[in-house]
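Input record, target 12 of the design panel.
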């Protein structure tokens, strides 16, 4: 091993600050060979191994008391195949850098989530997604994967090569190995027109099926303690480009959505009784606007206000009923919720443990400002979501376990059998995986 092994074992913390770990050692490999060697060395030392990205998961998916692998030297584009419409990137590449690099090459992912701080491997391993009628999560855009397995060997998989590993490892929660490279399907850059406008809760839920069917990417935010929602429709456009003006962008995206929102949350945390009034004001703060730009500038937005989040995937047909139950619960409870509830969709995919595996899906995400007690709200929400066979996002707060997942994922056994084969010694295990996948 080279100087990439750091003898120090500091405390690792996730972005939200709700998960900490003290690894025995940290390794920052500069190549796939060094990563393989680190996994083999860990086995000799009887230590478990976890790779971390940027810590954007709210669960302890990446926490370890063994060897913590930091992939920040494994970054950049390995190759672009314009004929096949694919790009292969190193696992530690942040989505932000991937999006910028693709844009320079005149390329884009078809769909993406609304945050681009994560590494590509962290984002796909936990099932990160945006919203889409026809286009699915980031993992569903993968055509090939390379991972280092428990014995240190490098395994490549695709629909043709090791297809059973490919079916599972695209959303592998770090249980099957350490991803070293990902090949994504990409397309020539296109333009999206975003239309953001306020609508009432009753209006959105009453016409949800039409709004979903008429737009390539539809999402909305409902502000608890109000009947107000903000909606966003993104559709492909012939142009011309009409980006958000710099002044308006700074005012709405930075000042209102981050600056004022942060202050409002501090006030709400100190004096919870003020939250309903703040919610009424903030739900009306953003006016309607339309703009046209390249995909990542439309799909993503800065998120500087830190929070804790739970998100469940329910069958799309159950969305409206589930959301109305959530609103009724908040309305009759003493809870004070300062963060909007986010609703998105995804078509069914064929990935073993993807939250949209085998079913058309809607996502409902609930958030609490960092440092505010969230347990009462989240457990009440979780009871509603699980009554509708909800599947929690692998990287967000939930209390579900392997028994529950065996019921809501028809192919759960397929994943655990593959894990037994690839990692019989549980080199990549941790407490979180023990809970969600069983022993």
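The sequence produced for target 12 reads:
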């Amino acid at each position: 091993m080279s100087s990439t092994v750091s003898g120090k074992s500091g405390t690792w913390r996730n972005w939200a600050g709700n998960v900490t770990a003290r690894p025995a050692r940290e390794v920052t490999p500069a190549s796939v060979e060094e990563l393989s060697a680190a996994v083999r060395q860990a086995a000799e030392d009887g230590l478990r191994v976890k790779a971390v990205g940027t810590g954007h998961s709210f669960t302890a998916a990446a926490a370890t008391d063994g060897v913590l692998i930091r992939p920040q030297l494994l970054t950049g584009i390995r190759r672009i195949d314009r004929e096949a419409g694919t790009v292969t990137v190193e696992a530690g590449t942040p989505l932000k850098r991937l999006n910028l690099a693709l844009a320079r090459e005149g390329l884009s992912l078809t769909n993406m989530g609304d945050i681009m701080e994560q590494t590509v491997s962290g984002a796909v391993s936990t099932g990160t997604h945006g919203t889409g009628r026809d286009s699915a999560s980031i993992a569903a855009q993968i055509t090939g994967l390379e991972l280092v397995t428990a014995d240190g060997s490098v395994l490549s998989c695709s629909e043709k090569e090791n297809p059973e590993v490919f079916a599972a490892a695209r959303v592998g929660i770090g249980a099957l190995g350490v991803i070293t490279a990902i090949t994504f399907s990409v397309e020539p850059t296109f333009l999206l027109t975003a239309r953001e406008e306020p609508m009432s809760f009753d209006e959105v839920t009453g016409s949800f099926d039409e709004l979903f069917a008429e737009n390539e990417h539809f999402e909305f935010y409902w502000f608890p303690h109000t009947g107000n929602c903000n909606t966003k429709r993104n559709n492909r456009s012939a142009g011309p480009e009409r980006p958000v003006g710099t002044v308006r962008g700074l005012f709405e995206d930075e000042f209102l959505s981050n600056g004022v929102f942060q202050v409002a949350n501090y006030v709400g945390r100190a004096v919870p009784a003020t939250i309903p009034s703040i919610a009424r004001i903030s739900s009306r703060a953003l006016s309607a606007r339309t703009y046209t730009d390249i995909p990542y500038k439309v799909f993503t937005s800065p998120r500087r206000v830190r929070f804790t989040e739970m998100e469940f995937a329910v069958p799309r047909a159950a969305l409206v009923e589930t959301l109305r139950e959530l609103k009724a619960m908040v309305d009759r409870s003493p809870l004070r919720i300062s963060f909007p509830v986010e609703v998105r969709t995804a078509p069914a995919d064929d990935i073993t443990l993807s939250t949209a595996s085998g079913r058309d899906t809607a996502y409902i995400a609930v958030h609490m400002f960092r440092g505010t007690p969230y347990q009462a709200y989240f457990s009440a929400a979780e009871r509603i979501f699980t009554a509708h066979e909800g599947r929690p996002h692998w990287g967000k707060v939930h209390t579900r376990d392997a028994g529950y997942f065996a019921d809501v994922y028809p192919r759960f056994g397929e994943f655990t059998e593959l894990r037994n084969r690839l990692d019989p010694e549980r080199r990549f295990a941790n407490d979180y995986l023990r809970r969600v996948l069983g022993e």
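The CA atoms of residues 154 and 346 lie 32 Å apart.
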